[in-house]
Design a protein that fits this description.
It comes from Alteromonas lipolytica. By secondary structure, the chain is mainly α. It is built from 17 helices and no strands. Helix content is about 80%, strand content about 0%. The N and C termini lie far apart (about 50 Å).
Amino acid sequence: MSSRRTKSGFIIAAAFIGPGTVTTASLAGAGFGFHLVWALLFSVLATVILQDMAVRLGFATRAGMSHALSNQIKNPLLRRGILLLVVCAIGVGNAAYESGNLTGAAIGLNNIAGLGIPIWSCLLGALAIVLLWLGQYRLIENVLVSLVAVMALVFVLTFAVSQPDWQQMAEQLFTPHLSADSLTTILALIGTTIVPYNLFLHASLVAQSEQESPHEASHYRRQSALAISTGGLITLFIVATAMQAFYGQSESLHAGNLARQLAPLLGDYAQWFFAVGMFAAGLTSAITAPLAAAYALTGALNKPADLRSPWFRGIWLCIILVGIGFSLTGTRPLVAILFAQAANGLLLPVIGLLLLYMMNFHPALGRLKNNWLANLGGVSVILLIVWLSWQKFA
């Protein structure tokens, strides 16, 4: 990497706004209007809090999160257990989710040129492989930041022409819902925003940047908060647009009718808006998911976290190829997805607690260690996520 500051925060925004986010936010807006926006706001705030810790950890230790965990946990049995959980949740999970990322982007492009979803998935997978194989961080960064800008433009314009009912949105915003019917959607909104692998990705990106002085940390922290907030705002626009199109309507929302049902709002341009938005969302996740897995797993396996190292390339290549394979067959790896969701559900509170521990006791942190406010925020986030999960599955 060159000495120029990186845009790592916007790569994280690109990572969490994928087809899953578009779908979940659309379902939230269609089914519950603005009554669940509180869950989105909590998710964005929680992501800012946790990613800020990851930024400071990567900056101070000059190592990825897997390396930091391995060095900080002295008990060998506990260390192996945590690293095994990382491998299972992030390695298996990202491989399972990659098919959805490629398929989501392919659905968008197929609405423009009907080559078929399998062909588009292969072409997009090949594009991701070429981009990552080149090993040029600036190129990857510029592509991802550009795609975030495209998503922002598409979804903001979509919302702007939807003639939003501001009064209804305000009323629903201040009458939040938390019920058995809405709990699944609430957890989905939280899960698609607070992504465990983004903590590993962010720490690694900051750790490998060329830092000229200790004061650079404040730049990356501000950038992280701004980028994540931007991603949250894009998600909010998706919720609002789906609310205008579907809330209170007799026909329910699903992937097959999203573009068609936007036609009353967007006219002949509905198909193009939907296609470009899904393409940008899918491609960003199709690139960042294998990239994050490579950083996390090379750290867990104590291998070089270098864009051009054989281990690094081998990990992300396997994940993309698995995603292409499932896309070609048209099947979803349900067992792997369920396993990954369970592992991620366990991983987030565990990693959150370990992150809090490291942010208070890691010797390299110095002035970057947590203060009482950061600790309060981190503990509150973890407790609320655990409580909501308990309410769902108890």
